[in-house]
From TrEMBL:
This is Glyceraldehyde 3-phosphate dehydrogenase NAD(P) binding domain-containing protein. NAD(+) binds at residues 37, 127, 309. Keywords: NAD, Nucleotide-binding, Oxidoreductase. Residues 4-158 form the Glyceraldehyde 3-phosphate dehydrogenase NAD(P) binding domain. SMART domains: Gp_dh_N. The record marks 185 as: Activates thiol group during catalysis. PANTHER family: GLYCERALDEHYDE-3-PHOSPHATE DEHYDROGENASE (PTHR42955:SF1). Transmembrane segments: none annotated. GO terms for molecular function: NAD binding; oxidoreductase activity, acting on the aldehyde or oxo group of donors, NAD or NADP as acceptor. InterPro entries: GAP_dehydrogenase, GlycerAld/Erythrose_P_DH, GlycerAld_3-P_DH_NAD(P)-bd, NAD(P)-bd_dom_sf. The active site is at residue 158. It comes from Cupriavidus basilensis. It comes from the Bacteria.
Amino acid sequence: MPTITAGLNGLGRFGLHLLRAWLDLPDPPLRITAINDAHHTLASAVRVLSEDPKVSFSDCQIRADGDALLIARHGQATLRIAYSHGPAAHAPWLGQTDWWLECSGAHPGALQCRRFLAGQTRRVLVSATCHDADQTLVFGYNHESFDPAAEVISYGSCTVNAFVPLAHWLQRHYGVDNAEVSVIHNVPAHRLANHPHPERRACTLETEGPRLLPFLAPAAFRVDYVLIPYTGVSLIDFRFGLAMPPSEAVLLDALDTACASGELKGLVRLSPVNAGPQAFALSPESVVLLRPRARLTGKRLVLPACFDNENSATRYLDLLAFMARRGG
Ligand SMILES: NC(=O)c1ccc[n+]([C@@H]2O[C@H](COP(=O)([O-])OP(=O)(O)OC[C@H]3O[C@@H](n4cnc5c(N)ncnc54)[C@H](OP(=O)(O)O)[C@@H]3O)[C@@H](O)[C@H]2O)c1
């Protein structure tokens, strides 16, 4: 039985993907023992888990029992997860788990998160950019620099995880002089009515990229981000100015090897086909690059891609599992 206990605050799109990915871990090094959500009652959480059109829990029997969510799976002990509905600060289990998994989006700053450091709870892991977190750890890039003294840790964001390990790999092999990212980001179905038109937005990757990657000057990096009224898998295109590129074929073959068996394995996929975004739903990689659309012209590398932004919860879980195995 894992010794580290965690409470999940936020059963929105991210929390749902996280719960599914955690259930799928063959040997989980942490236990989710409590869930709080500001929007879903226990009854509606049971409904969401039973009926979500994308994240399937069809291998589980899910029901409510008193104040708990019960998840039963064939051949496994039934999981009993304390469930509460309301503001996070009123969760009856506050202070009773080792970690607080802050996945609601309602507490974006470290100061707000520190109030969850009560009782037994010694760490808050934020599922989004948190500029004043003690550490931002991007799995596959700098997670090894985990400081056990850090109390509030951000995992980055979906776009940070899609960009940073890839940019770091390109820098190490060919040198990166500048980069641009264009994001076409989806909207969850429950928010569609509030976003009837495309909206240009600032993206936290624009500040986090240069902050995490010392070789990337803020003036040499730009992100254009558009939220569109669409619920499917999102799109992300990268453009890099490389210092010393080889030929296009050599670069893409090296990238293919890095994705298949090298340092980008599990983080980035290079798809040999230019499939539509929905083909990459639930992809466990942070981003899927489309090889037929990739091109290198002189020193300019263009990498069109798709990413299941919600399923970036798998990177968050990779980070949690790593920290838990390091002793929490
Ligand atoms: N989704 C992603 O692609 C993604 C990727 C990486 C990181 N994150 C981060 O993870 C955090 C949570 O994001 P999220 O995408 O999980 O948020 P979400 O699904 O939009 O849930 C957040 C809020 O939306 C409302 N809501 C949730 N489910 C609802 C439903 N079925 N019907 C109506 N309203 C509902 C609730 O707030 P109200 O009831 O108060 O409206 C809820 O607190 C954020 O910090 C986000 O930046 C998200």
